[in-house]
Specification:
93 residues, mainly alpha, Serine Threonine Protein Phosphatase 5, Tetratricopeptide repeat, 5 helices
């Protein structure tokens, strides 16, 4: 869903927390990073760069690295996501 900004806005407006967890205990930011989807809206609404998922103990930046190497290309732009995460203060290898 992170690649559907209107849906993200509607969920946030309805009070769903930006760091709510889903599959593997990952947040929307984790999943957006994995897929290489835009992350600006999530970050603008306070998504945590440091929260770890509950299955792999990875941060969103870790999911970005893993997704870049192992994900399915579905119109993704992992390089752009990396730039945005770095600008927001994320530590990437």
């Amino acid at each position: 869903m992170p690649n559907e900004p209107e849906a993200v806005r509607a969920l946030l407006a309805a009070g769903v927390g930006v760091d709510s967890r889903g599959e593997h205990g990952g947040t929307a930011l984790h999943w957006a990073c994995w897929k290489g989807y835009p992350v600006e809206l999530l970050l603008a609404n306070g998504a945590s760069l440091m929260v770890q998922d509950t299955t792999f103990q990875g941060t969103p930046a870790g999911w970005l690295d893993h997704g870049r190497e192992n994900g399915v290309d579905c119109g993704s732009d992992h390089a752009q996501v990396e730039q945005v995460l770095r600008a927001a203060g994320a530590k990437l290898d």
